[in-house]
Amino acid sequence: LETQFAKHLAIDEATDTLFASADEGLFRIHYNNKQWQVDKIPDTDNDLHFMVIDEGIIWVGNATQALYKIEHAQDDTRANIITKFDGKDGLGKNNVVPFVLSRGVVFGTNDGLMDYQQGRQPELQFIEALPEIFHSQNKDVYRVYEDQQHRLWYRIAAHTGYASLDQNNQWQTHEDLFKYFPDSGYKDFVKTTENTLWFSMANGNIFR
C-alpha cells in the first residue's frame, strides 16, 4: 500500500481481510495466489480516518462531517454498496468516529453520540437515553469504550470518565478517577480483566 498517511486498520474476521483508511480513501489488503494484493474501494475518494467493521459492514468516518457505510467490500462477486452520510443527515461539522458497542455501531460527533437504524427517519439520531454529556451540543465525542460490565468509558470534550447503570437502572457518570492523572487528551481505553483498565494519552503516556 503506497500512501503518505495510513490512518486506521481493521480486520474483517469472517474473511481475514484487512482494510486500511488513508488520505486517498479506503483500501482492501488480502492474500491472493501467494502474494499480497491491494485494491482501492471505488467511490471512497476522501481523507478517511477511524473505521470499524460490524457484521461485515464497514463504517468509516473523517474529520470533515462525512461517514461511509460500505457493504460487500470483501466479496469480488458482489457489487459494493456505498452509502455516504453528511451534514444533511445530522452529522456535526467535524470528526465522525465510529465505535462498536453491545447495542451496535455508534458514532461520535461534535454534538454527541449517534446511532443508526435503517428505515428510521432520520436514520442517524442522537442517543438521548444516555447521560446528557453524551448528547450535548459542541461537546466532541472523541472515545467511547464498553467494558465487560457494560460500563461506557468516555472522552467527551474535556471530560473523561465512565457511565454505568445504578440499582434503579438509571445512568450515572463518574469522573473522579481521572482527576489524579495529567490531562493530556485521553486517546483510548481497554480493560483486560474486571479490575484492570489500560488507557493512553496524546502525549504518549500509557497508564494501568
Give a structural overview:
With 208 residues, the protein is an all-beta fold. Helix content is 0%, strand content 51%. It has strands at 6-12, 17-22, 25-32, 35-40, 48-54, 57-62, 67-71, 81-85, 97-101, 104-109, 112-116, 124-126, 141-146, 152-156, 159-165, 171-174, 186-193, 196-201, 206-207. Strands 1-2-3-4 form a four-stranded antiparallel sheet, with no helix packed on it. A four-stranded antiparallel sheet has the order 5-6-7-8, with no helix packed on it. Strands 9-10-11-12 form a four-stranded antiparallel sheet, with no helix packed on it. A hairpin with a 2-residue loop joins β14 (152-156) and β15. The radius of gyration is 18 Å and the shape is globular.
Annotation keywords:
single chain, 208 residues, 4-stranded antiparallel sheet
Radius of gyration: 18 Å
Q: Largest sheet at a glance?
A: 4 strands, antiparallel
**Low-confidence parts:** none
Query: How do the helices and strands follow one another from N- to C-terminus?
Result: EEEEEEEEEEEEEEEEEEE
Number of helical regions: 0
| Span between termini | 34 Å
Mean pLDDT: 90
Q: How many DSSP-defined strands?
A: 19
Strand order of the largest sheet: 1-2-3-4
The geometry reads as globular
